Amino acid sequence: MPVTNVTPDLDQLTLTIDAEFAAPVERIWQVYADPRQLEKVWGPPGYPATVVDHDFTAGGRVTYFMTGPEGEKFAGYWDITGVDEPNGFTFDDGFADADFNPNPDLPVSKNGFTFTAGGAGTKARYVSTYASAEALQQVLDMGVVEGSTAAINQIDDLVA
């Protein structure tokens, strides 16, 4: 399993997930830079993602929805704030309505995904920062640790 550590920190308002992949940094970068590959790993098993728009540049936006086992759809967006190919990127991640308008009732997180050479291939660190402990607790209660871990663990099969 690629995920090696998960640390929710209500004092620092962060959720940090560390993972290791048996593939070079450039290959892990491609998973996020290519919307068709991203669809295979964004969302836990049973909730496949469909990427609708994918402007993977600073100032760009990625929109997507996940489809649940009963056909229900869950939309979200990334507002890309920085790109450092192939070492990582930063973005604001939010929930959205069916038309990809931000849902103000659910938290938005600031995220930094970094990829460095190490171990058998790539060490990845996923850091999400929330505006408040309540916002972080809300996504923890929604199952973000389990969902993110299951999603990230799909990457090894994709890059094998």
UniProtKB/TrEMBL annotation:
Domain Activator of Hsp90 ATPase homologue 1/2-like C-terminal, first and last residues per copy: 22-159
Database matches in Pfam families: AHSA1
Descriptive protein name: Uncharacterized protein YndB with AHSA1/START domain
Family, as annotated: Belongs to the AHA1 family.
CDD domains, sorted: SRPBCC_CalC_Aha1-like
Coiled-coil region: none
Species name: Naumannella cuiyingiana
InterPro entries: ASHA1/2-like_C (IPR013538), START-like_dom_sf (IPR023393)
Source superkingdom: Bacteria
